[in-house]
């Protein structure tokens, strides 16, 4: 009988260990996160319709404050940003309409966040910075059905800002207790090395099984744009300016300060470190006009390092998100508390906190162990009677 109890005790210890051991999902927050504001809303798309004002459906632009149909790489690099200084890149997505009225992705409690991760690639994969002037699109803004936008529910997905109501939804939830719906856009991050300076999407693929497919050997940061919209606790009838919700798509144009971007890739993604959250100026959207913004607009409150003397010495700290990052010369990156970054990171799996083990697996294992223990106890008692 003592042997039986010892066996059951050992089973409990093993089960507890399975729950406690961190897996790759806990380490998936290596990289960094930016908080940028709405810059402007325009019916322009400098990737799809360069040089043609008003040719596109309405887009909300984040980051670079000058983005419009006439933008060039040079004009974007010279412009201001409401992302942290160093990121003059542009990010945009179709506007959201609720019951026919545009909902601005701004206001109290609303966050616009941009993630730079490597959690869809195998550990140890060498990550390259986005090449200068890379232009890419995720999703299909011309889809006529959900089937024509196959990344819905996987790389492009809806949810609630408080993570209630399910995760990775292909359509908006009917209601959110927070009154804010979210839309995540995940971009492909395997590149074939061809830069077109127009639309590089055909030269990009998503990784599979933690590896880039053949012919697309350049592993880039995993870019995820998270937009939030204050629609109210009842979501209502939601559409995008591009059409039904299954037309969700987003664009990214890399006009970063390239040295700043390279420093972060080396310091965070290629060392497996979480560099935390960098907060920009946020900002209020200027009037919707195609005229380029002037470069005299206020800069953001956080400076991303420009050109560190050595990337090996870059060490994240636990400074507040808005702390100035002016220590580039010494090769150090100041960041937000890593717990804040992990709290806002899109969940990589549906696993329990601090483990990648699925709850259903743990439950089945526990039931099996209990049944085995009960059967053994009953058998032992019967043998003792005889």
Essential attributes:
single chain, 386 residues, alpha+beta, 2 domains, six-stranded mixed sheet, five-stranded antiparallel sheet, 5 helices, globular
Entry summary:
The chain is α+β, with helices and mostly antiparallel strands and 386 residues long. The protein has helices spanning 2-20, 73-78, 258-269, 338-343, 359-385, and strands spanning 31-35, 38-42, 59-63, 90-94, 96-98, 101-103, 113-117, 135-139, 156-160, 181-186, 190-191, 204-205, 218-219, 222-229, 238-240, 249-253, 274-279. The strands form four sheets. The chain has a six-stranded mixed beta sheet with strand order 9-10-14-7-1-17.
Write structural notes for this entry:
There is one protein chain. The chain is an alpha+beta fold and 386 residues long. It folds into two domains: 1-25 and 353-386; 30-348, no CATH class. Helix content is 18%, strand content 19%. It has five helices and 17 strands. It has helices at residues 2-20, 73-78, 258-269, 338-343, 359-385, and strands at residues 31-35, 38-42, 59-63, 90-94, 96-98, 101-103, 113-117, 135-139, 156-160, 181-186, 190-191, 204-205, 218-219, 222-229, 238-240, 249-253, 274-279. The protein has a six-stranded mixed beta sheet. A five-stranded antiparallel beta sheet has the order 2-3-4-16-8, with no helix packed on it. Strand 5 and strand 6 form a beta hairpin. Helix 1 (2-20) runs antiparallel to helix 5 (359-385). 42% of the residues are buried. The model is unreliable at 7-28, 283-301 and 307-363 (pLDDT under 50).
């Amino acid at each position: 009988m003592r042997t039986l109890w010892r066996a059951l005790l050992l089973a409990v210890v093993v089960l507890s260990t399975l729950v406690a051991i961190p897996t790759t999902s806990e380490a998936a927050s290596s990289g960094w996160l930016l908080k940028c504001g709405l810059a402007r809303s325009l019916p322009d798309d400098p990737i799809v319709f360069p040089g043609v004002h008003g040719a596109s459906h309405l887009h909300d632009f984040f980051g670079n404050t000058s983005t419009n149909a006439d933008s060039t790489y040079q004009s974007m690099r010279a412009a201001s940003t409401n992302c942290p200084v160093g990121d003059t890149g542009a990010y945009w997505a179709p506007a959201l309409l609720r019951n026919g009225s545009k909902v601005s992705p701004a206001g109290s409690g609303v966050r616009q966040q941009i993630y730079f991760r490597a959690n869809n690639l195998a550990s140890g994969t060498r990550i390259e910075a986005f090449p200068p002037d890379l232009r890419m699109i995720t999703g299909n803004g011309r889809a006529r059905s959900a089937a024509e936008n196959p990344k819905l529910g996987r790389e492009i997905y809806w949810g609630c800002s408080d993570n209630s109501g399910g995760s990775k939804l292909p359509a908006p939830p009917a209601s959110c207790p927070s009154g804010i719906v979210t839309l995540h856009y995940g971009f492909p991050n395997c590149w074939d090395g061809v830069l077109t300076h127009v639309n590089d999407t055909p030269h990009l693929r998503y990784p599979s099984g933690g590896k880039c497919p053949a012919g697309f050997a350049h592993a880039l940061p995993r870019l995820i744009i998270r937009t939030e919209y204050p629609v109210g606790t009842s979501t209502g009838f939601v559409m995008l300016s591009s059409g039904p919700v299954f037309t969700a798509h987003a664009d990214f144009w890399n006009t970063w300060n390239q040295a700043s971007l390279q420093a972060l890739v080396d310091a965070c993604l290629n060392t497996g470190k979480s560099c935390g959250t960098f907060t920009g100026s946020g900002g209020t959207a200027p009037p919707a006009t195609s005229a380029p913004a002037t470069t005299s607009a206020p800069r953001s409150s956080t400076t991303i390092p420009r050109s560190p003397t050595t990337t090996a010495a870059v060490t994240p700290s636990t400074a507040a998100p808005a702390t100035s990052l002016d220590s580039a010369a010494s090769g150090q990156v100041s960041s937000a508390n890593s717990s804040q970054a992990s709290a806002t990171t899109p969940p990589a799996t549906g696993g329990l906190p601090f483990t990648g083990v699925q709850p259903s697996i743990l439950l089945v294992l526990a039931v099996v162990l209990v049944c085995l223990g009960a059967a053994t106890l009953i058998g032992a008692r019967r043998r003792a009677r005889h």
